[in-house]
Write a structure and sequence with these properties.
Layout (H helix, E strand, L loop, with lengths): L9 H14 L9 H18 L5 H13 L9 H20 L3 H22 L2
Length: about 120
């Protein structure tokens, strides 16, 4: 997993995006919870360090997802997780619209994955 410095850089963001897309290649629901938690933690740290106010809503939603996936929950609420993933997908779509050309396509792919997985889980 990525090791982030104490400040945000576009290169760190691109690296985390590549790692996340690679991890999700086999599907979001096939991702081990421990790996999901690691990716969520990395994204939270990276986005908090970015200093970009619009990304702080994403940080909050990542915290919500982290809570929903917590081992403290004896059963996972697929509908609530689906809603959170859908929200993150929508937020990622918004971020892609203003992203650099180098990351726009990958952010759109990530958004599509999140929206699809969210919709699938919400329908359970």
């Amino acid at each position: 997993m990525s090791q982030f410095t104490d400040h945000y850089t576009p290169k760190a963001g691109a690296a985390q995006l590549t790692e996340t897309l690679h991890a999700l290649h086999s599907g979001l629901t096939g991702l081990p919870l421990s790996t999901a938690h690691t990716h969520i933690d990395n994204w939270q740290n990276l986005l908090e360090q970015s200093g970009i106010p619009a990304l702080q809503d994403v940080v909050r939603e990542l915290g919500n997802l982290q809570s929903l996936l917590s081992s403290e929950n004896h059963t996972l609420n697929s509908v609530a997780i689906g809603r959170s993933l859908s929200m993150l997908g929508a937020q990622t779509t918004q971020a892609a619209a203003t992203a650099t050309p180098e990351t726009r396509q990958d952010l759109t792919r990530l958004a599509d994955m999140l929206l699809k997985a969210g919709g699938d889980l919400e329908g359970l």
